[in-house]
């Protein structure tokens, strides 16, 4: 079978059919365009923004351990004082009133030791959200969506690229953080037997120092990973918002209006303006023509600073103006230079320029003389 070269692929000479060809329509829906400002704003309203939950978790952990480091001593002292008070009053009769007092004391102790920690963690969590996405309140993410109950959609989400990335991230976190824990504790584990020879307070201080040092070391690693995750989430969100060329065109039509519809609107507006202009022709004092190409309708009343153009047209419109003028018995004067000048220099509804006063005055004077003669002979 012979073939001949072609810019569109190879052709079968016998049947003149292409052996292969590219169908560009297959690429019509490819999302290659950067998201527009409207696309980003709509996504933001729906809560689709690039943010990392790892950032929130890392800084909340950091804030929590910092508060525990600073206020932990006071909290322990408060708990010990209250415990001493309770055990020192065990000989008191156990009744409803004493149980209520113990319960109230425990509530007050819990509030004094935990509220500062919870408030500080809440502030840090809000601050991290504001730092990532700014002030943005959306109920789209928490609204009920029946599609989320669809098992097929659920399976697609489970085996999607995003789920795979999240799985890899989780494994990396476990491996990296586990490595730091093992390398740190393998040296510290030999210090544990020494705690037997310490008093209880020294032993607790040693254990707390070890725990806090390890915690801050792990949180440091966690923060680095969270920053990298934030950069990835921003990039992924931008990829998700990318648009195809057709989507860009559709959005432009929605914002600017369909060109066909806009063209019909402009055509309708021109028709309405033309109809209003033709209604004004019978009110004119004179029609200045050239004699086939241009027609300009002039009107002058006492109190006007200068005559005004109430209608004008070229070619077919000019013939229509003259036809209406004949039906309404409006005088028609042929003056080629004046007709061209008025058509080019004066818009409808505007007064004639000063340099045309003399020429227009001569035409109006001629028309007024003609009207007086007509009334005289009538």
UniProtKB/TrEMBL annotation:
InterPro entries per the UniProt record, alphabetical: FlhB, T3SS_substrate_exporter, T3SS_substrate_exporter_C
Gene assigned in the entry: flhB
Transmembrane segments: 55-79, 99-127, 167-185, 211-232
Membrane topology annotation: Multi-pass membrane protein
Protein family (similarity comment): Belongs to the type III secretion exporter family.
Protein function: Required for formation of the rod structure in the basal body of the flagellar apparatus. Together with FliI and FliH, may constitute the export apparatus of flagellin.
Annotated protein name in UniProt: Flagellar biosynthetic protein FlhB
Gene Ontology CC terms, in alphabetical order: plasma membrane
């Amino acid at each position: 079978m012979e073939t001949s070269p072609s810019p569109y692929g190879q052709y079968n000479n016998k049947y003149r059919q292409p052996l292969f060809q590219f169908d560009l329509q297959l690429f019509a829906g490819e999302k290659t365009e950067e998201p527009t400002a409207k696309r980003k704003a709509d996504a933001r309203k729906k809560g689709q923004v690039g943010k990392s939950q790892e950032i929130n978790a890392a800084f909340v952990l950091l804030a929590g351990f910092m508060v525990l480091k600073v206020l932990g001593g006071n909290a322990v002292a408060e708990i010990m004082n209250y415990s001493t008070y309770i055990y020192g009053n065990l000989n008191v009769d156990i009744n409803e009133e004493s149980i209520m007092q113990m319960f109230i004391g425990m509530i007050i102790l819990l509030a004094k030791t935990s509220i500062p920690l919870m408030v500080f963690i809440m502030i840090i969590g809000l601050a991290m959200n504001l730092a990532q996405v700014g002030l943005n309140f959306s109920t789209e993410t928490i609204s009920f969506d029946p599609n989320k109950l669809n098992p097929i959609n659920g399976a697609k989400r489970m085996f999607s690229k995003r789920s795979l990335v999240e799985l890899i991230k989780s494994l990396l976190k476990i491996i990296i953080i586990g490595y730091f824990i093992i390398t740190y504790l393998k040296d510290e584990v030999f210090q544990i037997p020494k705690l037997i020879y310490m008093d209880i307070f020294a032993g607790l201080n040693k254990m707390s120092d070890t725990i806090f040092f390890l915690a801050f070391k792990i949180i440091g690693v966690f923060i680095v990973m969270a920053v990298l995750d934030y950069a990835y989430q921003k990039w992924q969100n931008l990829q998700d918002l990318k648009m195809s060329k057709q989507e860009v065109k559709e959005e432009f039509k929605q914002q600017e209006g369909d060109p066909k519809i806009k063209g019909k609107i402009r055509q309708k507006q021109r028709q309405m303006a033309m109809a209003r202009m033709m209604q004004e022709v019978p009110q004119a004092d004179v029609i200045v023509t050239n004699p086939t190409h241009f027609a300009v309708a002039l009107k002058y009343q006492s109190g006007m600073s200068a005559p005004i153009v109430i209608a004008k047209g070229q070619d077919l419109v000019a013939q229509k103006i003259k036809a209406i003028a004949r039906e309404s018995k409006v005088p028609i004067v042929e003056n080629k230079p004046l007709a061209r000048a008025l058509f080019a220099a004066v818009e409808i509804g505007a007064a004639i320029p000063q340099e045309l006063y003399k020429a227009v005055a001569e035409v109006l004077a001629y028309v007024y003389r003609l009207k007086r003669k007509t009334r005289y002979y009538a």
